[in-house]
Amino acid sequence: MEDLILVTGGAGFIGSNFVLQSIASEPARILNLDKLTYAGNLNNLRAVEAHPRYRFAQGDIVDRDFLRDLLGREQPRAIVHFAAESHVDRSIHGPDDFVRTNVNGTFSLLEEARAYWSALPELDRASFRFLHVSTDEVYGSLGPSDPAFSEITPYAPNSPYSASKAASDHLVRAYHHTYGLPVLTTNCSNNYGPHQFPEKLIPLIILNACAGKPLPVYGDGKNVRDWLYVEDHCRAIRTVLSNGRAGETYNIGGRSEKKNLEIIGAICGLLDELRPNDPAVPHSKLITFVKDRPGHDRRYAMDTRKIERELNWRPLETFESGIHKTVRWYLEHEDWVRDVTSGSYRQWMAKNYATER
Ligand code: NAD
Ligand code: TYD
Fold first, then answer.
1. Which of 84, 182, 217, 328 is the most core-located residue (most Cβ within 10 A)?
2. Residue 288 resides in a domain
3. Ligand 1, residues 14, 185, 227: which to mutate, most atoms within 8 A of Cβ?
4. Domain limits at 145?
5. Total domain count, the chain
6. Is the pTM of the predicted complex or chain greater than 0.70?
7. Nearest C-alpha to atom 37 of ligand 1 is from which residue?
8. Among the atoms of ligand 1, which is closest to the Cα of residue 83?
9. Do residues 126 and 142 lie in contact, with contact meaning Cβ atoms separated by under 8 Å?
């Protein structure tokens, strides 16, 4: 086996942050396998594209022949699986791609990983890892005073997105219990930071506010999410990959529960300071309540005591420091923004924010 990590979905938001952090922090080589859907963007990886320890392969995780060939040829010591359709609103408009990539794609990857792993020499078999990156949304929705989700909270996914992720988590679990594949699963709360596609709340609000466009708040804006800066998530995944126990799942979160209106208020406050000459100041006057998302989960919260206790991981950023970095990143990367907010993005905005959602 090579000192090679196969990363799926490494051109997306979290995957690209993971690739950049891994190349900068450890000696392993990284092979990034990505289909380059609307969410995959090689500009995210400019800083490493010519690095001797980084390579890119365009491909689809559903394609078993492609996976078999790649694994046989490259001999990775680990697979870190990010590739997915990841946006709840898109899963409501069109669930097909979510089942295809998140369920069938994870199944293909598991099958080909199992075949590859089974044929490895004994020592390599023992050290191989398949790390599956998942979400807190598989646990469903919490009431205001319910305890946070722990690793033993029963699954209760409510959107096509979370149902497809839950299905993939179950398959990963079964491949450990049935075949002994050395898997690790991480379930993380909402991420934010550089490279997030501006269909998600935080980048969408930053870009709309700068452009003087309405800031769409679903429902009453009091839905709660636990926010984690993306680099903290990537560090957690690297920690689980090196020190996690095979077959275990680890919840990851920022201990930073916030209502959507608090998030939007924080972004508007920062922009008032950083961009006093924008079309609309204070930026909060752009806040616009729109029709709620169907089946909108009320609250997510993560109990992260297991990863803190067993693996000594904790977030390094506070929400205040992380959101500050994030707002600045979007303001300083106009080219990146221009590139991703072209044709298909505009069509998505028109479709999702039409009066009748
Ligand atoms: P993203 O949508 O930004 O990126 C997904 C990447 O996967 C893209 O580069 C895309 O091109 C690629 N991809 C999609 N379908 C593919 C296929 N069939 N074959 C190969 N590549 C394919 O997603 P993200 O926000 O970076 O999320 C990454 C992972 O982390 C997902 O599994 C998601 O469920 C999970 N997660 C995300 C969050 C979050 O807040 N964003 C939180 C917890 C967990
Ligand atoms: P999102 O970033 O889509 O993440 P998720 O739904 O996976 O948690 O949304 C975060 C929260 O923000 C969620 O409660 C929905 C809400 N939201 C809005 O109020 N307006 C928007 O335009 C978007 C995209 C999200």
1. 84
2. no
3. 14
4. 4-189+230-253+296-317
5. 1
6. yes
7. 135
8. 7
9. no
